[in-house]
Structure formats: structure tokens, C-alpha cells
Amino acid sequence: MCDCLGIIVQYADNGRKPLVNRDSGAKLPDPEVKIEVLNKPFICRRKSKYGDILLVHYEGFLENGTMFHSSRLHGDKNPVWFTLGIREVIRGWDRGLQNMCAGERRKLTIPPSLAYGKEGKGKIPPESTLIFDIEIKEIRNGPRSHESFQEMDLNDDWRLSKQEVKEYLRKEFERHGYPPNDTHHEAMAEDIFKKEDKNQDGFISAREFTYKHDEL
């Protein structure tokens, strides 16, 4: 995944087991992400949904106010891209960044079970509640959207090769002035194929593509 997101963009499931009531043995509901809207534009042409590619700036804090990462201050200081809803980011982001407008800012308070859990990560101690200030700069159709399939299917054979998916990602990034990033595109394509190539034949059929998108 994109190095510019540091500890955030990565698979973040942590293998955490469901919370269970010790007395009854019943499964407890997952803690929720607390969402506070800090700024919302007057005009909102579309809202983010699972499968969209988002461009965001963010700052991450521990509960005591210690900043552990900022896209504006660390790395290349550019906003970062990721695909919403496919576990490229911690689950708290996937839940808390839905239905946002471009230009909207939110404060997310994310419990440990939807972040890094018992293990922690880098500067983040185990069982840490995390607080993020996140601004969406841009929302684009991701490779999982229905309307993207025909654009991706370059030879009109009703199935997608890995090369076709990577070519689509490259064009989308270049369209917005970002240089090609073969490593990032390869990682994103690998993730898509792991989840959508159900019969593992090396292609994503129109049926596999559409069915998976409806599940997201």
C-alpha cells in the first residue's frame, strides 16, 4: 500500500475476535465510531460510498492529544489516496468516512477494536482509542463501481485482467496530476483480485465484479 499513509493504509483487521459477554457468552455489538462534522460544504455533488477512491488529508492523535501522524507534516506532505470499504485502512475509517462530501472535514473517535486493538502499532500503544481530523479533498469512482467496468474492460471480453485494472488505476491517477506509482497500483490490483476473483482463474468476470460490489 501507499507508503505516504504510513501506519494507516494497510490491512487492519488485526484478527480480533468478537467481543463476548463473559457471563452469558452472547456476542456484544462492536463499539461505534463517534463522528463529529467539523466543516461541510454548502454544495455537495456526491457523497462517498464503499468502492470509491478518496483523496484525504488527515491528522491522527492519541486520547492524550499526542499527534502520531499527519499527512500535512510527515512523509511527502501530500494528501493520500485509498479505496473505501476494502480494508486498506483501519475499520474505523471505513465506517466513519462514508457519506462524506468533497471538502468535508470530520473528527473521528475510534475505539481500539476498530483500530489497532491489543497489538498497537508503531507509536500507538495497545488498546488505544484514536482521534482523527480528516478532510476529503476528492472523491472518484473506484475500480469497484459498476460504471467503471466497461471503461476497464479494454478488449470488451466481459472480464478484467490484472493488467486492465492496473491500467485503469494509472489513468485515474494521471488524470489528477499524480505520477504513476506501479508499486501502489500493483498492490491495489492484488487486493481486488484476492477478493473478487472467486474462481481464481486470473480474471474478474462481469458477474464476479458486480456481485462483489453489491456486497460492499
UniProtKB/TrEMBL annotation:
Q: Which reaction does it catalyse?
A: [protein]-peptidylproline (omega=180) = [protein]-peptidylproline (omega=0)
Q: Which residues form the EF-hand domain?
A: 140-175, 184-216
Asked whether the keyword Glycoprotein is assigned, the reply is yes
Q: Which UniProt keywords apply?
A: Calcium, Disulfide bond, Endoplasmic reticulum, Glycoprotein, Isomerase, Metal-binding, Repeat, Rotamase, Signal
**GO cellular component terms attached to this protein's record:** endoplasmic reticulum
List the Pfam families.
EF-hand_7 (PF13499), FKBP_C (PF00254)
Q: Which domain of life is it from?
A: Eukaryota
Q: Any idea what job this protein has?
A: PPIase which accelerates the folding of proteins during protein synthesis. Has a preference for substrates containing 4-hydroxylproline modifications, including type III collagen. May also target type VI and type X collagens.
State the protein's name.
Answer: peptidylprolyl isomerase
